[in-house]
Amino acid sequence: MGSLDGTRRIGRFTVERTLGNGGMGKVYLCRTPGGLRLAVKVISTELAHSHTGRVRFHREVEALRDVRSPYTLPLYDAQTATPPFWLASRYVEGPTLDEHVRRRGPLGERRVAELGAMLAEALAGVHAHGLIHRDLKPTNIILEDGEPRIIDFGIVRSHSATKGLTDPQSPPGTHGYVPAESLRGGEPTPAVDVFALGVVLAFAATGLLPFGHGLPATLRIYQGMPPRLTGVPPALASVVRACLSPAPAERPLPERLMAELGALVKPPPGPGRPPVRPPRQPTVPVADPPHHCHVPGPPAAGEGCALRPVAARLLASGLSRPLIRKAVLQHAR
């Protein structure tokens, strides 16, 4: 066992293989001495020896410790005192949203709305702890049994964080997901995560990014150009467009998004669900129905049909006319 770069152990964990490389370092699949699988992120040597890198790492560790949510992966352990710095969290085998869409195509409207409502709930939990993720994107969303798990809190920021802790030479997020106010150097607010969520939902619905890729996407956002939402279903497009508003104050809060996206999620007519039948209307007997009785013998002078009271009771009970006729004939015998 071991990774391709020769790493065999990280702390007390045994390395099985490399899961991926990121901006802050490498992520390995490891096992505890008891056999539990973990995802262990090891910070690169360069970042470990820089002030900015250490600050970002400690922020991520503290964020994972503070945010206890079903939509995030709990922190198992971390090495924060001396290099090499690493953190270990629960391993999820599911694909990222990016991988799922590229392999299987865009999601349907109902599925996108369902996913969006859960991601909005996840962001509400993150923001409730005074934190901003700042790098929400399909590659940072793992699908576990169809439910999202948000990972990579490497550039998370506190609402009240001190200025100057972000490296001015590195973009505060990913091209195409960062709103204009952040590109202009403004302090981040929870609205930056809502903007990124809008991009994620557009990608999930179409497989395309509304502003494109790379630096051209950043320029489109900076210049205030409208997003391209071709292919996004109208009801969903209205929600996405609100998330991508150039003005942070006009973007909906996660709680509102949960309600709006939840309204688009309609229960499917699954198997085993009993059909909805209209309520049964009571049979109203005719006040003075004409005499069509086939019982031998006409009624006595001045009297109605002798069987009419029986028929009236049967009609009142809700029986159909064929059954009433059968009952009448049986009574006559």
Explain what you see.
The protein is an alpha+beta fold and 333 residues long. It has three domains: 9-90, Phosphorylase Kinase, domain 1 (2-Layer Sandwich), CATH 3.30.200; 97-263, Transferase(Phosphotransferase) domain 1 (Transferase(Phosphotransferase), domain 1, Orthogonal Bundle), CATH 1.10.510; 290-333, no CATH class. It has eleven helices and ten strands. The chain has helices spanning 45-48, 51-66, 97-104, 109-128, 180-183, 191-206, 214-222, 234-243, 254-263, 308-316, 321-332, and strands at 9-10, 13-21, 25-31, 37-43, 75-79, 86-90, 131-132, 141-144, 147-150, 157-158. The chain has a six-stranded antiparallel β-sheet with strand order 1-2-3-4-6-5. A two-stranded antiparallel ribbon has the order 7-10. It has a two-stranded antiparallel sheet with strand order 8-9. Helix 4 packs antiparallel against helix 6 and helix 6 runs antiparallel to helix 8. The radius of gyration is 33 Å and the shape is elongated. The termini are far apart. The relative contact order is 0.09. Residues 164-171 have low confidence and may be disordered.
Examine the coordinates and then state which fold CATH places here, giving the name of the CATH topology of the largest domain.
Answer: Transferase(Phosphotransferase), domain 1
Mean pLDDT: 84
**Tell me, what is the CATH class of the largest domain?**
Mainly Alpha
Strand content: 5-15%
Strand order of the largest sheet: 1-2-3-4-6-5
**Class computed from helices, strands and strand pairing:** alpha+beta
Using the CA coordinates, give the radius of gyration: 33 Å
Number of strands: 10
Distance between the termini: 92 Å
CATH homologous superfamily of the largest domain?
Transferase(Phosphotransferase) domain 1
Helix percent band: 25-40%
Provide the low-confidence segments as ranges.
164-171
CATH architecture classification name of the largest domain? Orthogonal Bundle
Rough outline: elongated
**What is the tally of helical segments?**
11
